[in-house]
Amino acid sequence: MSDVAMFSGLDESTVSRLWDNTGWLDRISGRSLQSLMSSVPGIAEYFMAHSLRKRRDSLVAGLESAGLTVDLDALEGSPVTRQHLLNALEAALHIMRGDAGQKVSSYLARFWGREPDRALEALYAAEGGLLKEPRKLLDASVDLAPRLDRKTYSFHSILALNILTHQVSKVTGTPGAELAGRPAGRQSAFMMRGVVMGALIGSNDVELAERYRRELDRTPMYTALEEWSFPTYTRDGRISPDFTLPSSLLLRNTAREVLREIASYNDAYFYYLVSTYIPLALRRDPTFGHRRTDLVAALERRGTRCADRMIRSACAELVKKIKGMP
């Protein structure tokens, strides 16, 4: 005890009050904890593991009572950051409880981003995901969506509804009429985007990608939201309640994400990138995050593998356009 006090610089009386207390981590805080972590080997790691396990066990118990069983092996073996996974489990708890107030909208809205999205993807996955029987969560999400629709002018509810419908349509592979409420304005447009992106990933429906492209050609609001989505999702731009971007924006993170998606997603989603998003990105940042050469190479590699003539043609046209840019 005196050794710990000496190395940490704490009073022996402070250490002695915690010495035989198995719940000492719940009693210590602030500078005292920092002093122990910086002077006693293993405390920092123990503190992190204890905090994560405590929250995990609480969430597992709560979800069990709500009818969902967490696959602990999948949770522990996931490559996704543990904190994001626990946040996703807490989101599931809110959804299963049917919380449709401001809290659940605000909570779900924080999953806008690549890493949080990966955690939700693991939550909703039909196989190998965080839940052994995710069907109940899907059903609860479908039930919750219309109640989020009611907060038409809430920025958080717009994001939350997009995120929720995106995850469900990604698993089901269909836009899902039961999810498609009809609020006016940005909420309807943004929800449509979430549903379409999920359905493209889940169904590989090239015609859906083409219908989405035509819809953007007709509706400037849809185009503006599409242009806003990638840069804020990848944190190239700040998430703004008015859905605007600065006039000058370097799409460094967006370029990295798009290149990843070109290599990993199905043909329908690839067609969406080629015909819809990449042209918008180049209009916003002609350098494509200083990776235009990498973009051309990725498009040429992927385009040759597509059996669909329309996709190959669109890809070749885009490559020609990029090569002709100054």
SSE order in H/E notation? Answer: HHHHHHHHHHHHHHHHH
Structural class: mainly alpha
Shape: globular
List low-confidence stretches: 176-184
The main β sheet shows up as:
none
Give the distance, in angstroms, between the N- and C-terminal Cα atoms: 70 Å
How helical, in percent, are the residues? Answer: 55-70%
Query: Number of helical segments?
Result: 17
Radius of gyration: 24 Å
* Number of β-strand runs: 0
Classify the beta-strand content into a percent band.
under 5%
Write down the overall mean pLDDT: 91
Question: Would you kindly provide a brief summary of this structure?
Answer:
The chain is mainly alpha-helical.
Structure overview:
The protein has 17 helices and no strands. Helix 14 runs parallel beside helix 16 and helix 15 runs parallel beside helix 17. It is mainly alpha-helical and 326 residues long. The longest helix has 23 residues. 34% of the residues are buried. It is globular.
What's the helix and strand layout?
Layout lengths: L1 H7 L3 H8 L10 H10 L3 H23 L6 H6 L4 H15 L5 H8 L4 H11 L10 H15 L5 H18 L13 H18 L2 H13 L1 H14 L18 H13 L2 H18 L7 H12 L5 H15 L3
Features:
326 residues, mainly alpha, 17 helices
